[in-house]
Design goal:
two-stranded antiparallel sheet; binds iron/sulfur cluster; Alpha-Beta Plaits; two-stranded antiparallel ribbon; alpha+beta; 17% helix; 4 strands; 3 helices
């Protein structure tokens, strides 16, 4: 009888997956409400311990695990504070490309 493949939990898949997005937060526009931090599914946003020139703790991207879902963008009450970028997946060849002679 063949040995069973080890099962991978959904959160483990998330941990080993390549980041699919990235976020830039304008520290001058952010009002430190924390809505983006609370709403981010993979919890990759945080409020900085340092104060910005307006005396608030701005949000900050930790630099890992962003999926590019855009939830933080839609939650943010400050237009222009958050910009979400989608990272295109790396293309992996799954089958041989036919040559011109076989087309
Ligand atoms: S785009 Fe999604 S995963 Fe990325 S920081 Fe925003 S809420 Fe989190
Ligand atoms: S939701 Fe917008 S204003 Fe609030 S902490 Fe996040 S980036 Fe700043």
């Amino acid at each position: 009888m063949a040995a069973k493949e080890p099962r991978v939990r959904r959160d483990e898949v998330r941990d080993i997956a390549e980041p699919r997005g990235s976020v830039e937060i304008d520290q001058e526009e952010c009002k430190g409400c924390g809505l983006c931090v609370e709403s981010c599914p993979p919890k990759c946003l945080e409020l900085l311990p340092e104060l910005n020139p307006y005396g608030i703790h701005p949000a900050h991207y930790t630099g890992e695990k962003c999926t590019g879902c855009g939830i933080c963008f839609y939650c943010c009450p400050e237009p222009g504070a958050i910009t979400v970028f989608r990272v295109p997946p790396a293309r992996v060849a799954t089958q041989e490309v036919p040559s011109a002679a076989t087309l």
